[in-house]
Design goal:
With 497 residues, this protein is mainly α. The chain contains 20 helices and three strands. Helix 8 packs parallel to helix 19 (439-472) and helix 9 crosses helix 12 (197-206).
Length: 497
């Protein structure tokens, strides 16, 4: 009898030993037992499919099943590592925030930001020093007083003045006849000349966008100019031409000199003949006058003498009549008033960011006034005004497109845009009447306005083109003359009735 607690391997070994040594009856018994042992193994493949990856497991029979469970326990560890992705997703949820419209972005696009903010010329907040390299500075540019920029430039924005701002300033200057008349003639000529546009922009950048500074940097003098030029070129001459030019005796000397200098060449028109490279030169001397204008002014602004400084630096009052004009003959200067008792001069210190330096008297230049922060109601009023302007513009386009037969689709677009801008106006107007002082309330409205305004740009240009095309269409030549007057009389008669 086989022991009941023997393993399958031990039973197989024991049966093989009995078959090797036993008789026929023992062999038959061993075969039956082997068949019993083999049948369960044939039946066990059923659980094997449940773990297709377990074929290696049977090789390590009983010990490996825990191992798979151990490996099976790893997936939770993997899920623990896989739990890290939620952390990135949490961090990944942050990137949409910069892409989403924030209040700073909307304020920048609407022009509500402070002049010290590098990305905008205006933004709420205290002006901060300019970032190095954030502004384009021209070497040798004149020092400008912060806040003196004209033509709508924000005070204190001199460090941010670049060529783009200068180009816009130049276009506005050209479009203003009064300001052009106030400029010196030669400077006005430079501003109008398209070929000198780059030079004019350089001057405006150097002046920091200040019109008075621009005039001050322009040089005025009348000087005498003379030029003396010499031009020379080599011309091939024949022997007969040299004889006719110098005579027979001197021509022989010239030809000998040309041979020694290597200036004798073969005549390409006839073999055997020679040509002599003769130096022909001419001298030009011209004389004329050249006018330049120059005026520079410097000084400090104190209480009581602002009117005198305005007389000196004002463009209309400053007429450059010639070189070396003495200012004291034309302007009566008052004595410098004493400083007020309660206002002591501050300690002078150098500040490269703001351009302050200690002057000769040991006093600092006046500080630029700070731009006050806009309140939510100020921003709302600005948004309401812009929405109303756009609505009126779209309405005007819509009325003009009614008479254009081929502008049906554009007419629909103008009507929709007018309604959208009008809806924004009504919504903001209601919030202002309720005195809502919350930036968060106006943020989505301003974002929607910017989106509509961006979509409105192209249709408005198309509508404008259609209106121009309709106005440029020639009148029907077959229409009877005076028909327009007759229609006008009928309309007036109908209105009078």
């Amino acid at each position: 009898a086989l022991p009941m607690n023997a393993t399958k391997l031990q039973k197989l070994q024991l049966l093989q030993d009995i078959m090797a040594t036993g008789d026929e009856g023992c062999k038959q018994f061993c075969k039956d037992e082997l068949a019993k042992l083999i049948k369960p193994k044939a039946a066990t493949p059923a659980p094997a499919p449940t773990s297709d990856a377990d074929p290696p497991a049977p090789t390590t029979t009983g010990a490996d099943p825990p191992a798979p469970t151990t490996r099976g326990a790893d997936p939770p560890a993997a899920t623990t590592r896989g739990a890290d992705p939620p952390a990135p997703t949490t961090r990944g949820a942050v990137p949409p925030a910069p892409n989403a419209p924030t209040f700073d972005d909307v304020s920048a696009k609407m022009g509500w930001s402070s002049p010290a903010t590098p990305r905008m010329v205006e933004a709420p907040g205290t002006p901060s020093p300019a970032t190095p390299g954030s502004a384009i500075t021209t070497p040798g540019s004149a020092k400008t007083t912060p806040g003196s920029a004209s033509d709508g430039l924000v005070q204190g924005s001199a460090p941010l003045y670049n060529r783009k701002n200068a180009a816009m300033f130049l276009n506005r200057l050209k479009g203003n006849p009064k300001r052009m008349q106030a400029l010196p003639d030669d400077l006005a000529k430079l501003v109008r000349d398209e070929d000198s546009k780059s030079k004019a922009i350089d001057l405006i950048v150097a002046a920091g966008g200040d019109e008075n500074e621009l005039v001050g940097q322009w040089t005025a003098s009348s000087i005498s100019v003379g030029t003396d030029k010499e031009k020379g070129k080599m011309k091939p001459l024949t022997e007969q031409e040299l004889i006719g030019k110098y005579g027979a005796v001197n021509a022989a000397k010239v030809m000998e000199e040309k041979r020694k200098a290597g200036l004798e060449v073969d005549d390409p028109n006839c073999k055997g003949l020679k040509l002599y490279l003769h130096n022909e030169w001419q001298r030009e001397w011209t004389r004329g006058t050249e006018e330049r204008s120059s005026f520079t002014a410097s000084g400090e602004v104190r209480a009581g003498d602002a009117a005198n400084v305005a007389q000196i630096l004002s463009v209309p009052r400053r007429a450059l009549t010639g070189p070396g004009q003495d200012d004291e003959d034309n302007v009566d200067m008052e004595e410098d008033p004493k400083p007020l008792p309660n206002k002591k001069p501050k300690k002078a210190r150098k500040n490269e960011a703001s351009g302050k330096e200690k002057d000769e008297d040991g006093e600092t230049e006046p500080e630029a006034p700070r731009v006050e922060k806009l309140t939510p109601l100020d921003k709302a009023a600005d948004l309401r005004g812009r929405a109303l302007s756009k609505a009126n513009h779209a309405g005007s386009m819509r009325k003009q497109l009614k008479g254009v037969s081929y502008a049906t689709e554009c007419l629909k677009e103008m009507t929709n845009f007018e309604q959208e801008f009008q809806a924004i106006y009504d919504q903001v107007d209601k919030l202002i009447s309720e005195l809502v002082h919350d930036d968060g309330v106006y943020l989505p409205i301003a974002t929607r306005y910017l989106d509509i305004a961006k979509r409105y740009e192209r249709p408005s240009k198309v509508a404008n083109s259609l209106i121009r095309a309709a106005k440029a269409t020639p009148k029907d030549p077959t229409a009877p003359k005076g028909s327009a007057k007759a229609k006008s009389k009928k309309r007036k008669a109908a209105e009078g009735a």
